[in-house]
Design goal:
six-stranded mixed sheet; 8 strands; two-stranded antiparallel ribbon
Length: 313
Amino acid sequence: MRQGCWRCRGDASVSGGDRLTGERVTEAQQLLGAIADRRREELSATLTWLLAENLALRLGRSVMRERLLLFGDLMLHTLLGSDPPFEWDAELLALGPTTPEELARCLREVCDVDLEDGLDLELPVGGVAEPAVTSFGRQVTVTLVGALGAMRLPLKVVVRLDEQIYEKRSDCSLSSALKKSVASRVTACPPTTAVALLLRSIAKSGIATTRPKVLWNLYSLINCGKVEASFAPAAIAAAFAESGTPLPRTLPLALSEEFATHDSRRQMWEAYRNRARIPAPDLAEVVGQAQRTVWPWFVQAGSRSASQPFGGE
């Protein structure tokens, strides 16, 4: 434990909420220091992840749990029960709110949920940006403010809009790293749909714009044993059709041998693997396995009739 750290002693008053007692804050500060020491990372980095986890837990206890689904790293962490990642993005999939105003109302309701774990979250005025169009489709960047005692940090959350889910949502249990007694049933994007959305992003991106983390998330999903191979072609067809994106007739560049052997891509992969501290194989193996697994799904998706119904919940 860090000695002489303000987070482990001193004033335990809470800015932004009298409801959080000094004892809870002091306990959370001590646990934060222990977790950061164990992970060998800065306190601010550890706290930012704990705030993202806190958002997921609040969402699980909110009436918004069916409208805002966990996606990306929060989804993977919850579904796979893995350790918190060292490089991550906080992402949600919005099935209900489609405008910044609607999303702000939903998130304020989520932030109002009190977990009694010493952390606080709020959505400041102007915290919801206007939608932007990316390879994933329309998305909104939200900046929440999290607090533990006197320490306040921004938490950036990317909310993806306009998506449809054609399979049962994943329902999982998530416990707080700060207080194991604080747990929620959270709702996440189902793995098969997540794979379809990742593949759509990869297909729309070139070699230069495909992030290593997208490939790692895809690799993690297809190896987790939770993707329904029989439904994957339908999920892929639905994801591409919903966004008006044509299905690729040839292998996407980011799943090609050209990508796997490209010097700059291999260097970026190695840098990401070291920075994120992930147990990932070489880029060639990641791309090769993804290629062997998902290309048959692309072929089957392309052979589906436009009138053929997708799977339902």
